[in-house]
Amino acid sequence: MSATLRSRLSDIEDQIAALQTERATIISQLSAAAYPVLFLPTDTIAEIFMRYADGYPSTCNPRTLTKVCSLWRTVAISTPGLWTRFDYRSLGKLDNSAHASDVLGMWLSRTGALPLDLSIQLPSPGLPECTNIFRLLADNATRVRNLRLYSPETMEIPGDQLGQLSALTRLSLCGQHQRVLIPKPLDVPHLRHVELVAIELPHWRTCLPSQITTLCLKQQSSVELLRLVELTPNLEALEFIHGDFPSAAAIIGPPRALNRLHTLILGGHLGHQTCAGLVLPALRELRLREDRAANFRVVEDLIHRSGGSLTTMAFSVVDVGNFMDYTMNEMQSYLAQTPALRNLEITCRDITGRTLKKLCKVLQNKQLVPALASLQLLSQRQIPLHPLVQMLTARRDGGALRSLKMNLEPAWSDHAGGVDTEMELYLEELRSLRSGGLEVEISPEVQRLDSSVYS
Asked: Coil, helix or strand for 385?
């Protein structure tokens, strides 16, 4: 009797085991149907992660991927390409505390042998954390491709400890008008791009490599600009945002010739002596960041001394009281001196429809910049179609204009009542110009214009 019961019990246990196995299989199949991403091959998951990293700015933190599940954590940690960009701005308060070097060390340990792009906020000089960060940089010196250092205090960079930064092509030093000390020259044979933001550099005369081709100076003085360009005769692109009011007496010495410079970006309160100290025979592209009446004569002189060889220019038009007429006159002066100009970008700030009409009328004159092939208008207001179409038609009639881009900001909105008959006629003319070969690109925010032109 007992043997029969035990045999039956054993059979039941076998059935239970079989049912549990079947249950687990069904649950697995249900999970796969509900969450197929969990059952992708690990190399596919890694490729998706890399697309995620490439499509987002460096301030996105890949550690987010390690907190979803154990599989994702394993894949993320074992994918070196996810960790090659380190930006302190993506870290939380805990990571920016006294143990920031531990986070940086963990991060770098996951990068394999790949090139590195690092943005680091330095602790106060002399603290162990600061020493640890530079030790980590020295250990990985041959892999650092882009390096951005920020410090709200005096920054001291131990060039003799870092060794050769043989892969470094871009260096950014950012502060809050603090001194940056570099007692020994950095060994940076391939450095080409330098950015300096609101810092003082007493040692750059011995530390700035002459092979630099791009220099970006923000919140710097004109004196610093002219001192630095003496050390960088091979500059091809220069951005200068003035950080203080200029002093004409501060600029001493002969003009500085930058024979290779083809791109210049200017902003802030420019002094006449600043640009008067630069000779730019190869200048082809000029971009003005701000709307300051005091800068107009400076820029006009700069254009004149470039020999009228500009092919690309970008500037702003602003409507403030009686300033508009002055702006228009200066704009016409700019254009009259640049007969070779082919690309023109105009940003319209706080201007009325009446002012936009004036702007279109000025551009309608084909004697100004006869070679103009590409025009871009950026505005926060509705572009009046009638003068726009008139200007485009005049420019297309035997002219060189080939492309129009209206990059209207989201603040612009369509009229609530739909499209009236007169506007529909101008839209049709705009579409006709496009059919005739004019490349027209209108930002997606303007659905009414977009659908009318591209239907």
From this structure: helix
